[in-house]
Request: fold
Amino acid sequence: MSQTWIDFDAPDLAARIEQLSDGERDALPFGVIHLDPEGVVLFYSATEAKLSGYGMTPLGKNFYEVGRNPANRDLRDRIRTAMEDGAVDLEFGWTGDLVNAELRMRVQSARDGGVWLCIERDQPPLARRAAKK
Reply:
């Protein structure tokens, strides 16, 4: 399966990602994280490790506890509330992670009861300013 057809805006983004191998997920141009229902990281793409600046793979760890973003608690609460209500299909946007990029995150239900987090990053604000000069 070619990664080129994986559109970050696809309504069935998680279903498409579940059809890929781990290697294909690693090659996507956006970050991909798979969490179990308790928030334990089952998959953390190479792209996410690189673009986030995190640099390591937190497999087997609780995503909300290892992250350095102060919004992790709010993110956890929003995802848990959505999971309690049924199928998860959320979208968030904010500025800031380890590389101070503008983020767009989509969170959708996984077949195993967990969720897929897909994270798209724009250039960090400082890099955009430098590119304009």
